[in-house]
Amino acid sequence: MEEFHGPCIYRVPSQIRDVKPEAYTPRMVVIGPLHRYPKSTTIDGDETSSHPWDLKKEYSMMEAKKKVCFESFTARVGEDAIVEMRKIIQAEETNIRASYEESTEWIPIEYFVDLILHDSVFIMEFFQRAHKLNSYHVGTVEQDSVVRNDLMLLENQLPYFIFGRLFNATLMERRSNWTCKDIITSGFGIVTDETTNFKHFTDMFRRVYEESLGDIPVRMERIPWIWPHILELRNADNLSQAGVKFKSLSSIPSTSRSFGDAEYKASLMSGAFTLCVKFKKGRLVMPSFHANEQSDMVIRNVIAFEQCHVSLTPFTTNYIHFLNFLITSDRDVEVLSEEGVVTNSMGRVSLVVDMVNKLQVGVKVGSHSQYCYIAKEVKAHYKSRRNRCWGTLSKIYFSDLWTGTATVAAVLLLFMTLVGTVASVIQAYKSFNMDQQSLERIALLEAENERTEMEMNAEVETQGQNQTESVTQPCQRAKRVRKKQRALCWDEFTSVGIEEDGKERARCHHCGIKLVVEKSYGTSTMNRHLTLCPERPQPETRPKYDHKVDREMTSEIIIYHDMPFRYVEYEKVRARDKFLNPDCKPICRQTVALDVFKRFEIEKAKLIDVFAKHNGRVCLTADLWSSRSTVTGYICVTSHYIDESWRLNNKILAFCDLKPPHNGEEIAKKVYDCLKEWGLEKKILTITLDNASANTSMQTILKHRLQSGNGLLCGGKFLHVRCCAHILNLIVQAGLELASGLLENIRESVKFVKASESRKDSFATCLECVGIKSGAGLSLDVSTRWNSTYEMLARALKFRKAFAILNLYERGYCSLPTEEEWDRGEKICDLLKPFNTITTYFSGVKYPTANIYFIQVWKIELLLMKYANCDDVDIREMVKKMQKKFAKYWNEYSVILAMGAALDPRLKLQILRSAYNKVDPVTAEGKVDIVRNNLILLYEEYQTKSASSSNSSTTLTPHELLNESPLEADVNDDLFELESSLISASKSTKSTLEIYLDDEPRLEMKTFSDMEILSFWKENQHRYGDLASMASDLLSIPITTIASESAFSVGGRVLNPFRNRLLPQNVQALICTRNWLRGYADLEGDIEELFAEEDNDATKMTSSSGVGDSNI
Predict the structure, then answer these.
(1) Cα separation of 725 and 834, whole Å?
(2) Where is the HAT C-terminal dimerisation domain (predicted)?
C-alpha cells in the first residue's frame, strides 16, 4: 500500500472534460468531497449544482442505500470497530485533505470524517459482496456494473492508503485469505503484481497499463532526432500498402482470478488492453483495442490523471497518441479490424474513428514517448521503395491463391504478346529493306534509259537548247531550297550594319548598347547580354505552389476577417483559386477548422512560454457573454500585464462555454481551471468584475482557492476590483430614467426629420436659411446605449434654430420643443458630456488606466455636487438619483486604484490629499493615511518576495516623455495650484517608497501633462528597484472589464450569429487567436457591429412610424 506523498486526486481539466463530460461524471454514486459544495451537496438537489436533475435523483437514492449499507456493516463488525475507524480518519485528516488538489477546508471536520467513513464502508461492502462474505447487493446486475464504472472515475476517488487502513481495522483480512488489494483488483477484474502500489483506483488502472510495457526501454530524456518520427507516422492503410503487417498481441494479462457477474467481466475484458507494441521484420504487433463505451471511459480517466499527476511520463497518453496517427479514416479501422488489432463494438466504423481521435483532444503529449524508436523503424520501412513495391504486389496481386494465379497467368500472357509483337516488327523491318533495294535497282535502270534517249535526241535536232531545257527543268524540280533559321535573340536586337572599324554590329532594343555580331562571334554575346541587361523587363517568377503555405494563409483569412469555415467551399472562391493557380488543391471546412485549431495551439504554446518567463504579476478581467440561439453562455477571461519592455499587453486567456447555472461556484471553477492551465495561479494580483451578484461569491471562492496555494499578495486583500465603467453606467442610467420624459419633444423632433427623405431635404433647406452647415446629421438615441442620448442632444442643440424654421414649413411637425425644454436639454447635455469623456478614458486598452481612476471619480463627485444646486428642479432630482447610486459604489474610493494614482509622479499623495480636502476636509487626512499604509504594506511584501532589492535616494530628474495621456490638461487647473506649497522633506534613511512619496519633488502637471507614465518608470526602474516592479503590476490593473463601445451599453455582450453556430472550442480558437495575432481592440469591432445592428433596428422602427405621420 502506497503512503501519502502529496495531492493525487484532481478535478478533470476543463479542456479535457468538455470533449465528453459524461465520461467523467458519476451515473449513480458519488464518492469523496469533490462533488460536495459549500452551500449544499449535489445529492440534495441544489439548483446551483451542475449535475442534471435525473442524476441528482440517482445520487439521492444511492445515499440512502449507503446509510442502509453502513447500518448493516455496523451490526456485523460492532460499534468498537466503527469508533476505531473514526479515530484512524481523524488522525489522518490532514493527509486525506492534502490528497485532494482542490481545497476541502470549507468542510467541517465532523462532516468530513463521516463522509470518508461512509464512502469507505460502502466500497468495502460493495466489493466484499463479490466474495460472498455477505448478502448485500446494490441492485441489479446492470446497476452493479454502473457502480463499478463510477468507482474508477478520477473525481470519484478516496485515497487508497486510508481505505487500506480502515479495511485492516475491520479485521476483514483475517477472516479470509484475501488482502485488501486482492478484493479491489478482483472486483475490477484485473491482475497486478504483488509489489505494485497505487494511490487510488484510477491510478491502479494506470499502473496495470504501465506494467504491461515490460522491459521495453523508455528514454526519459527528450531526443530531438527521435521525437519527430512519431509526428510523421503514416496511417494504417498507407502502412498496409507499404507491406506492414498488423498482428494482435496475444499476451494480454490473464484475468483468470477475476470473478463477478459474467456480463461485467465480458465488458471489462473488452476494455482491457496493454501498452506493449513491437515492430520487427515488417510486422507491427499491437494490443487488441476494444472500441466501446467501457474502454473509452477507462482510458479517458487514466489520461486525465496522467495529465495532472505524471505529465512527464504519460504512457497511456503516448499510446493513444500513437494510435491516433494510425487511425485517421474508416479504411484504417477496417484494416486493423481484419487483423484483430481493433474490435468494433460501437456499430459504424466512423464511430470508432471519432472515438480514437477525440481521446486526443485537449491532451498534452509527453516530451518523450516509449514508441519513438518503433515509429522510427516503421517510418524507415515505409520510406523504402522496395517495401512499398512488395507491399503493393502482395496486397493487390497476390492477396490469395486465386488472385496470385490470375496475376501469373496475366504476366505470362503479356510476355507472350510482347514476344509476338517484337517478332512482327523484325519481320516488317526486313521486308522494308528488301523493298528499298528493289527501288534502287529500278531507279538506276530508268536513269540509264533516260540518258541513252537524250543522247539520241541531241544528235538529230537542236542540241544545245533542247538539251539544256531537258536537263535544267528536272534539276530545278529536284533542287530543294532550305530556309535559313534565325536565332531568337535577334527579336530583341537590330542590325546597324558595318561601322568604321569594319565590324558588323547590332543595337539592343532595351538599353541601346551595340554588340559585335560577326559570324565568328555567334549569338552567345547577345544572349549573355540579354540576361544582364538592366533595362530589359525580366519575366515574373512565380513561387512554386506550396499546399501547406496555402492552408496556413487560408486559416489566417478565417481568423483575421471572421469568415465562416464554409468560406473555403464557396464555389466562386474555389474558382478564383483555381484561376490564380491551377495546382491549388481545394480543402473542406473540416480541414480549415482543424488548421485554425492547430494555429490556436501553436500561438497558445508561445503565450504560455511568455507567461512562464514573466516575473511580474498578472491582472485579470472576466465577463460573461450570451448567445442568441442557445442557453449556453460564455466567459471571457483576459490577462493584463506589463512586459519587460514596459508595454501594456491585453491577452484573452479563455473564451469558453459556461453551461447553466451561471452561479459563483461554476464561474470560479472555470476561472481557476483557466489559471491552472496557463500556469498563472500564483501570479495573480487582481481580477476586475462587474457588479453581478454571482461575481461577489465567485471572487470569494476564487480568493480562497488561490490563497490556499499561497498565490496572492497580502492575503488577497486587493484581489477584487469593481468595473468602473459598469458603475458609471449605472449612475448615468439612474439619472436618465427621469430625463427620458423631459426630452420627449426633442426625441420626437429628431424622429420626425429622420422618418423620410423629403423631410430630410426640408430640414436641409432650413439649415441653409439659418446659415448652419449640416456636417454630422441628426442622431436618434437607443435605449440600450446611454451615450446615444448625449449624441442626440449634442447634435440637436446645434440645429436648434433650424427646428423653429421647420415648424413653419411642415404642417405635420407638432413636437417643436419650447425654449425651456431646449435649455433643460442643454443642461442635461452638459451634465452627460464629462461622463461620456470619462467612460472613454476608463475603457482604454492601449494605456494604463489605474492611475486615472482617482482623479476621474473625484471629478464626477464634484460635478454631481455642482449640479445638485442647479436652479432646474428636474435636473436636481435627476442628480439626486445619480448621487445616491454614486454613494452606493464610490462613497469610499478603491484603495488599490488610489495606490495606482499615488504611483503617478505627477500626483503622488499630495494631490490625493488636496482632492480629499475639496470633498470632505474632515476625513481627508485619514483617507490619505489608509492609502499610504496600504502602499507600505504591499511594498514590504514585494521586498520580501524579491530576490534582490535595490534602494536609491537619488533625486528625481525630470524627463520629457511625450505621448498621449488621459490626464492631459483635462484635470482642473485649480487643483494643481497648490504645487508651490508642497516642498519635499529632508532626506534621511528611508525606504525607496518613502523617498518617492515624501522626499522627491512631484512633477508639475502643466509641464508634464503629456508624459507617458510607463516611460517614466521604464527609465527609472534601475533607481527604484522593487518599487518599479510594484508600479509595473499596479499600473496594469484594468478598471473596466469591457471595451470602449460596450461601456455605454446596458444590453450585455452577445455573440454574433456566425459564432452562435460554432462549437465552443472553435469559438475559443477563433476569438483567442485573433486577439493574440491582432490585438484586443479587434474584439471591439464585433461589438461595434452589434451596436450598428441595434442602431439600424431603431432607425427602421422610426421610419415605419414616420410613414404614417407624413400623411397628416
Answers:
(1) 13
(2) 993-1077
C-alpha cell at 391: 507491399
Give the integer Cα–Cα distance in Å for 234 and 378.
Answer: 9
Q: Which amino acid is at 789?
A: T
C-alpha cell at 852: 486615472
The strands making up 720-722's β-sheet, listed across from edge to edge, are 648-658, 633-642, 618-625, 684-689, 720-722
What is the residue extent of each domain of the chain? 14-210, 214-383, 490-529, 617-720+1042-1095, 892-1036
Higher pLDDT: 432 or 192? It is 192
What is the per-residue pLDDT across 921-972, written as a single tens digit (0 to 9) for each?
Answer: 889 899 999 999 999 999 999 988 874 444 443 334 333 333 444 444 444 4
* CB of 1011 closer than 8 Å to CB of 906: yes
Q: How far is CA 1100 from CA 291, 796, 1095, 1107, in A?
A: 56, 20, 9, 11
Residue 251 is classified by DSSP as -
Ramachandran region, residue 710 (left: φ > 0; alpha: ψ -120 to 50; beta: rest): left
Peptide bond into 661 cis (omega under 30): yes
Q: How many secondary structure helices (H) and strands (E) does the chain include?
A: 44, 13
Q: Are strands 493-498 and 504-508 parallel, antiparallel or unpaired?
A: antiparallel
State how far the Cα of 931 lies from the Cα of 903, in Å rounded to an integer: 11
What is this structure's pTM? 0.52
DSSP 337-404: HHTTSEEE-SSSHHHHHHHHHHTTTTPPPPSS-TTHHHHHHHHHHHH-HHHHHHHHIIIIISSSHHHH
Sheet holding 504-508, edge to edge: 493-498, 504-508, 514-516
Nearby residues of 882 by Cβ (< 8 Å), 6 or more positions away: 731, 732, 734, 735, 864
Counting other chains too, the contacts that 796-800 makes at CB distance below 8 Å and 24 or more residues apart are 796/746, 796/749, 796/750, 796/825, 797/822, 797/825, 797/826, 797/829, 798/772, 799/763, 799/767, 799/772
Distance CA 580, CA 615 (A): 49
Of the candidates 226, 231, 223, 236, the one whose C-alpha atom is nearest the C-alpha of residue 382 is 236
Q: What distance in Å separates the CA atoms of residue 1042 and residue 845, rounded to the nearest whole number? A: 9
Partner residues linked to 619 by β-bridges: 640
Query: If residue 451 lies in a helix (H) or strand (E), which one and from where to where?
Result: helix 401-460
Report d(CA 529, CA 507) in Å as an integer.
11
How many CA atoms lie less than 13 Å away from 846 in the CB half-sphere?
10
- Contact between 1021 and 615 under an 8 Å Cβ cutoff? The reply is no
Predicted confidence at residue 640, as pLDDT, reads 93
Dist CA 146 CA 130 (whole Å): 15
Average confidence (pLDDT) over 103-131: 84
Give pairs for 754-757: CB < 8 Å, separation 24+: 754/778, 754/780, 754/1099, 754/1102, 754/1103, 754/1106, 755/1102, 755/1103, 755/1105, 755/1106, 755/1107, 755/1109, 755/1110, 756/1103, 756/1106, 756/1107, 756/1110
Asked whether the predicted pLDDT for residue 1099 surpasses 50, the reply is no
Q: Considering only CA atoms, which of 672, 33, 149, 304 is closest in space to residue 42?
A: 33
Cα 1039 from Cα 842, distance rounded (Å): 7
CB neighbour class for 836 (10 Å; exposed up to 12, middle 13-18, buried from 19): middle
Question: Are 118 and 74 contacting, i.e. CB atoms less than 8 angstroms apart?
Answer: no
Encode pLDDT of 41-68 as tens digits.
333 333 334 455 456 667 778 888 888 8
Tell me the backbone φ, ψ of residue 651, rounded to 5 degrees. -125, 130
Burial of 989 (0-12, 13-18, 19+ CB in 10 A): exposed
Give Dmax (Cα) for the chain: 158
- Contact between 227 and 219 under an 8 Å Cβ cutoff? The reply is no
CA dist., res. 1099 & res. 778, Å (int): 12
CATH code of the region 617-720+1042-1095: 3.30.420
- Predicted confidence at residue 557, as pLDDT, reads 92
Q: Which three cell numbers stand for residue 247?
A: 498482428
How far, rounded to the nearest angstrom, does the alpha carbon of residue 625 sit from its chain's CA centroid? 16
